[in-house]
Amino acid sequence: AAGVIQSPRHLIKEKRETATLKCYPIPRHDTVYWYQQGPGQDPQFLISFYEKMQSDKGSIPDRFSAQQFSDYHSELNMSSLELGDSALYFCASSYFQVFANYGYTFGSGTRLTVV
Amino acid sequence: GDSVTQMEGPVTLSEEAFLTINCTYTATGYPSLFWYVQYPGEGLQLLLKATKADDKGSNKGFEATYRKETTSFHLEKGSVQVSDSAVYFCALVPDLSNFGNEKLTFGTGTRLTIIP
């Protein structure tokens, strides 16, 4: 079965650079969520989109932005990178109308290292 | 706000031992409850879930029962294996009748190590 695809799997950037993370949800899923997991930490919600509109916002820095495109894939853009942005970034998708039964499916994550 | 309090780790058990990882929550309304597992170097995988009081989620020998009276969702397994070594996260989604509020709130995770 198709899963949530994230790219790239690993990314190394220098401070003050920009990074773009991509997420391709499961086909027909209309909702995408982004989470950040620091080393040894629990995942923290960043932002979500439903039908290409932002539906909720968490602890996402102003340096970060995200959008969901017409084909439902999503991109997380991160500018002026800081060492503290080094983390595992997860994308998850769901189909809202059956969320109660199936919940989320997470991608394998993108590990961002800022040096 | 909503929160999940999870048994702190790390937890180390011998193979075939009984496992309990405690999880309690604070939420308004009727949250849905989840256990996720994260194997080394991998993403989060849904282990089991329960969407209403007294529901029991089960998968791969793991079980958890949604107890509204004690606001708990403890994870149990009767006989653990080395392959169960991972980090386990308890999580909740607030009342699903509140559209646009489906973000997961995670507990801090419990690292489980099973020794042969």
Write up this protein:
The complex is a heterodimer of chains A (115) and B (116). With 115 residues, chain A is mainly beta. Chain A has one helix at 99-102; strands at 5-7, 10-13, 19-24, 31-37, 44-50, 53-57, 64-68, 74-78, 87-94, 105-106, 110-114. Chain A contains one helix and eleven strands; from the N terminus they run E-E-E-E-E-E-E-E-E-H-E-E. In chain A, a hairpin with a 2-residue loop joins strand 5 and strand 6. By secondary structure, chain B is mostly beta strands. In chain B, a hairpin with a 5-residue loop joins strand 5 and strand 6. Classes of the chains: A mainly beta (115), B mainly beta (116).
Please sum up the structure shown.
Helix content of chain A is 3%, strand content 50%. Chain A has one helix and eleven strands; from the N terminus they run βββββββββαββ.
Mean residue pLDDT of chain A:
91
How much of the sequence lies in strands of chain A comes to over 45%
Portion in helices of chain B: under 10%
Model regions low in confidence, pLDDT < 50 over at least 5 residues of chain A: none
What's the β-strand tally of chain B? 12
- As a percent range, the share of helical residues of chain A equals under 10%
Strand content of chain B: over 45%
Task: Specify which chain pair forms the largest interface.
Answer: A-B, 27 and 23 residues
Cα gyration radius of chain A (Å): 13 Å
- Largest sheet composition of chain A: 7 strands, mixed
Given helix and strand content, the structural type of chain B is mainly beta
Structural class of chain A: mainly beta
Low-confidence stretches of chain B: none
The overall pLDDT average of chain B reads 91
- What is the count of helical runs of chain B? 0
Count of helix runs of chain A: 1
The radius of gyration of chain B is 14 Å
Number of strands of chain A: 11
CA-based shape of chain B: globular
Shape of chain A: globular
* Through-space gap between termini of chain A: 36 Å
